[in-house]
């Protein structure tokens, strides 16, 4: 265990001692038959696994085999010697940053409190029970049993859903417990409702006063006023731009033990902004809140924070020093960033409804990205390295936004700090998802604490651009997903408004007026408010955001998709690569119809839906070797997923600047989902552990700052130029047709004077396909493919994109490609020089479990190509050669 003196400084009294209780504890089960060491922070499952008492919980069917662990009641205990002289301190506190979830806390055998919410911190006064040698016990109750108990106790009316669908193999009544909602299973994840102390725990002793929390928020102009404007004017004005000055609102809360008033001063310093401000404060005994406004001089140019792809993520070091009577000095350092956010909902010419888009620092920004779920069922396995890898991968794929989805967790501090640094905008849900929720007094009180705690913890992060009350609960009520009796509907509507509006929204607005708040996603924004918070059609594509899923229509047909204002969820499933599955399975599992393959699929009919889409445009694997067939099927599901989401995303990207039939002005595309919680089929583009699926390489291309999009409408082929750049560019567009059987273009059309407009999507090319084919002579829809790119005189200016003129199962002239690879090392990266004997679609390089990513993958290969491999851990040319497999479409024939 660690023993540290916070902020020790020679010559003055500093904040009191802080003693961390991280480290090795003991954990035992309900009847005492098991007792073992357990690491804190950590979970019971991890302790059992580390001790060798269970296998990897993710292995094969272990989610079912280990159900007993979550049904048992575990007790964490520790004993320790307090490393400071207790009689020198007036007050001692026990502080938990996170307990998961229901526990009774005993300090030296005295019950000092209870916990029932994993999303809030807890602190307990232990002054009267603490001894030099002390013991601490957390008697957990099974989350599953607790949820069932709470549900039973809710006798007035049911709060559905009772249980998840059978194929999820999950637990029931998760809506009755403030715990990650997906921990009872989801349609992409297992049920592992573990118990544990999942965040820091420590003892803090103090005299005079204790800093309980410190939070700050940079604001531009006067938000308070604007919040009312927002209600009145149908425009979400996130800021008043008239005063044009930045202010930092700082709020600190103290527990003052000194019976005399404590005087002192608070000094805020931001050296790079030449800002030093000192305010006098006086604190009376008890819980005291100090608020300070720090004005940044108007004449000083503040560099704003920008999302990735739009500018720098400039931040400033700030220190806040409280110098209190009695020589007590408490100093905190933080990084402060400046940016404004507005959610614009206003009339659009030529369209009913309202716009729904974000302006950052006054600039309209298209949200490009995905949805984030917890990176593991067991948060103690989520390392800083993993978070960095996943978030860096988002940025590497040209994303600028992630939605932290409401069925998981409020992520750890480091997640948001990384998003700040990387320029990832965060759409932050509150943790309620796809269910109705109770509103009993105790539940509401717990939620109120949670929301207050989280907003205070997170609001200083510029990355967070919106708060959203829940995931899909507005639509769940409107469409009556859970079949509640229509005559009881009023009860549920009232509960909805009570929870998300009268409680959560009220707290958010009192703690943070700098960001928009919506009650749900999807929602109709202002229209939802006007319609009493449950809109007539929350899926409306002319208001707010929308979610869209359709697995049976042809995903190559863009007319399948909604020309909506902002699409915050959409997607298709695929299987993770064989090397990822191999770690949790055995030979008998390696076929698409195995018991394992069915077991891992938590979405009803999901495996069938994937093959359905594959079959629309591809031939199913034709090999006889069962393992080869399994691998080829995995490959094809990834090809299908990548191609479907490409078509859909490109449709959203090119719809940003137009209104067609009253629809369009699309300003965001966040596909479902970025990452995986375990090794199974899902909508993710990153596999469990971070390996890129084919979709993620596609995302890197379809989210490029400058993208040519090709599509057909009524037999006419169009190319749009979609730009996220801040100025117009004159470029050259090249459109070529290639015969499947030849590496030489059949013909190329070049327009060397196309103009790409800043932040817009414009038509660059338009020709009937029949004319195009005729011009090129030797081409038919089945024999040729269209390829196009933007370039300047010297270099490529966009990814090279393509358009298929027919399904690939009908393509003529495609032959087996012999692709040869030569690997060489250049410093930290490896160069893969590829040559192909024939045009090859969807060329896929796979180096198995070697951690790292390629610069490009899953591409259409004409002749030769060099790609880089960026290893995430040291490796060698020899290892890569051994691990490498290359697959292209015809290899599955
Ligand atoms: C766990 O605790 C609950 C409630 O206190 C109790 O009903 C149940 O029997 C306990 N289970 C075990 C395995 O100890
Ligand atoms: C104690 O609990 C474990 C785990 O639930 C169970 O396997 C065992 O049978 C129980 N032992 C007794 C004596 O009840
Ligand atoms: C602890 O502090 C008290 C009060 O200052 C003092 O009387 C006592 O000697 C100290 N004990 C130790 C072990 O230092
Ligand atoms: C707590 O109670 C147990 C028995 O109930 C006893 O053995 C132990 O000494 C007590 N511990 C403390 C610190 O009082
Ligand atoms: C971003 O930072 C770089 C390096 O500090 C600087 O050269 C550039 O001008 C900055 N860009 C903007 C838009 O502020
Ligand atoms: C800002 O603070 C960080 C962390 O304390 C430090 O590493 C960095 O050097 C500081 N930057 C400047 C410009 O002072
Ligand atoms: C404030 O308004 C001015 C003038 O309209 C504009 O140039 C500036 O970008 C705005 N600032 C912000 C932070 O929106
Ligand atoms: C080139 O494209 C522009 C539209 O960007 C169009 O106005 C122009 O006519 C095209 N030129 C040729 C030669 O097709
Ligand atoms: C593939 O090409 C390489 C190099 O040109 C050649 O050595 C090899 O025999 C070819 N393989 C097949 C199956 O044609």
Automatic annotation (TrEMBL):
Please verify whether the record's keywords include Metal-binding.
no
**Glycoside hydrolase family 2 catalytic domain mapped to chain residues:** 358-582
Enumerate the subcellular locations listed in this protein's record, separating them with semicolons: Lysosome
The positions making up the signal sequence are 1-15
**Quaternary structure and interacting proteins, as annotated:** Monomer.
- Which pathway is this protein engaged in? Glycan metabolism; N-glycan degradation
Which residue range or ranges hold the Beta-mannosidase Ig-fold domain? Answer: 814-892
Domain Mannosidase Ig/CBM-like residues, every copy: 717-810
Q: Where are the transmembrane segments?
A: none
Question: What top-level class of enzyme does the UniProt entry assign?
Answer: hydrolase
Sequence similarity: Belongs to the glycosyl hydrolase 2 family.
UniProt name for this protein: Beta-mannosidase
What's the EC number here? 3.2.1.25
Domain Beta-mannosidase-like galactose-binding per the UniProt entry, residue ranges: 25-199
Which organism does this sequence originate in? Apodemus speciosus (Large Japanese field mouse)
């Amino acid at each position: 265990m660690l023993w540290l003196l916070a902020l020790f400084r020679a010559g003055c009294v500093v904040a009191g001692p802080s003693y961390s209780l991280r480290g090795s504890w003991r954990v035992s089960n309900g009847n005492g038959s098991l007792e073992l060491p357990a690491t804190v922070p950590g979970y019971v499952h991890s302790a059992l696994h580390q001790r060798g008492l269970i296998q990897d919980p993710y292995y094969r069917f272990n989610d079912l085999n280990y159900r007993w662990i979550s049904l048992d009641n575990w007790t964490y205990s520790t004993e320790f010697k307090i490393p400071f002289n207790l009689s020198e301190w007036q007050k001692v506190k026990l502080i938990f940053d996170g307990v998961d979830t229901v526990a009774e806390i005993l300090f030296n055998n005295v019950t000092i409190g209870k916990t029932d919410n994993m999303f809030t911190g807890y602190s307990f006064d232990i002054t009267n029970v603490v001894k030099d040698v002390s013991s601490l016990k957390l008697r957990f109750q099974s989350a599953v049993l607790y949820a069932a108990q709470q549900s039973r106790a809710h006798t007035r009316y049911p709060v559905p859903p009772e249980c998840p669908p059978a194929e999820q193999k999950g637990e029931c009544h998760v809506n009755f417990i403030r715990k990650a909602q997906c921990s009872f299973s989801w349609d992409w994840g297992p049920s592992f409702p573990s118990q544990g102390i999942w965040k820091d725990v420590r003892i803090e002793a103090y005299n005079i006063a204790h800093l309980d929390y410190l939070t700050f928020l940079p604001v531009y102009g006067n938000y308070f006023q604007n919040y009312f404007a927002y209600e009145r004017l149908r425009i979400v004005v996130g800021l008043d731009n008239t005063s044009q000055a930045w202010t930092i609102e700082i709020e600190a809360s103290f527990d003052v033990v000194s019976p005399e008033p404590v005087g002192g001063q608070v000094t805020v310093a931001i050296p790079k902004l030449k800002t030093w401000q000192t305010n006098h404060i006086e604190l009376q005994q008890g819980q005291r809140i100090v608020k300070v406004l720090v004005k940044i001089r108007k004449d000083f140019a503040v560099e704003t924070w920008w999302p990735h792809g739009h500018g720098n993520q400039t931040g400033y070091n700030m220190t806040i020093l409280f110098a209190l009577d009695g020589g007590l000095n408490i100093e905190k350092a933080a990084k402060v960033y400046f940016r404004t956010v507005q959610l614009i909902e206003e009339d659009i010419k030529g369209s009913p409804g309202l716009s729904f888009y974000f302006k950052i620092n006054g600039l309209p920004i298209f949200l490009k990205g995905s949805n984030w779920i917890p990176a593991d069922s067991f948060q103690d396995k989520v390392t800083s390295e993993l978070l960095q890898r996943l978030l860096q991968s988002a940025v590497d794929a040209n994303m600028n936004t992630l939605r932290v989805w409401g069925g998981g967790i409020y992520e750890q501090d480091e997640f948001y700090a990384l998003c700040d640094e990387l320029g990832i905008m965060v759409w932050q849900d509150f943790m309620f998802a796809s269910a109705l929720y109770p509103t009993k007094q105790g539940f509401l009180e717990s939620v109120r604490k949670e929301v207050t705690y989280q907003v205070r913890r997170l609001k200083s992060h510029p990355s967070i651009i919106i708060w959203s009350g829940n995931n899909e609960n507005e639509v769940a009520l409107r469409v009556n997903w859970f079949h509640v009796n229509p005559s009881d509907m009023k009860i549920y509507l009232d509960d909805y408004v009570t929870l998300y509006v009268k409680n959560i929204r009220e707290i958010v607005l009192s703690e943070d007026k700098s960001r928009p708040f919506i009650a749900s996603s999807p929602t109709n924004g202002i229209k939802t408010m006007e319609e009493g918070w449950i809109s007539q059609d929350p899926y409306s594509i002319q208001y707010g955001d929308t979610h869209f899923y359709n697995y049976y229509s042809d995903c190559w047909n863009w007319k399948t998709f909604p020309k909506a204002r902002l699409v915050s969820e959409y997607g298709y499933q695929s299987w993770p690569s064989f090397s990822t599955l191999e770690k949790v399975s055995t030979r008998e599992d390696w076929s698409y119809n195995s018991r394992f393959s069915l077991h891992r699929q938590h979405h009803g009919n999901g495996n069938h839906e994937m093959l359905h889409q594959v079959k629309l445009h591809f031939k199913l694997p034709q090999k006889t070797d069962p393992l080869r067939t399994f691998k080829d099927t995995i490959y094809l599901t990834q090809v299908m997923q990548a191609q479907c989401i490409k078509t859909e995303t490109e449709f959203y990207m090119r719809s940003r600047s137009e209104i067609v039939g009253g629809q369009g002005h699309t300003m965001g595309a966040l596909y479902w989902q970025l990452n995986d919680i375990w090794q199974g089929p899902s909508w993710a583009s990153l596999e469990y552990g971070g390996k890129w699926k084919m979709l993620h390489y596609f995302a890197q291309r379809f989210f490029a700052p400058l993208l040519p999009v090709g599509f057909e409408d009524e037999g006419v082929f169009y190319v749009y130029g979609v730009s996220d750049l801040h100025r117009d560019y004159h470029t050259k567009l090249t459109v070529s047709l290639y015969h499947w059987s030849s590496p030489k273009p059949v013909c190329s059309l070049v327009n060397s004077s196309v103009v790409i407009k800043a932040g817009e999507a414009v038509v660059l090319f338009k020709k009937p396909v029949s004319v195009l084919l005729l011009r090129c002579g030797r081409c038919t829809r089945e024999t040729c493919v269209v390829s196009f790119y933007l370039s300047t005189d010297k270099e490529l200016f966009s990814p090279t994109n393509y358009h298929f003129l027919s399904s690939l199962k009908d393509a003529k002239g495609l032959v087996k490609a012999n692709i040869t690879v030569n690997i060489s090392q250049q410093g930290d990266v490896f160069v893969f020089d590829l040559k192909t004997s024939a045009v090859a679609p969807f060329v896929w390089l796979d180096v198995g479990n070697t951690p790292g990513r390629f610069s490009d993958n899953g591409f259409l290969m004409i002749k030769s190509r060099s790609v880089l491999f960026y290893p995430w851990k040291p490796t060698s040319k020899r290892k890569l050669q051994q691990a490498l497999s290359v697959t292209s479409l015809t290899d599955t024939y």
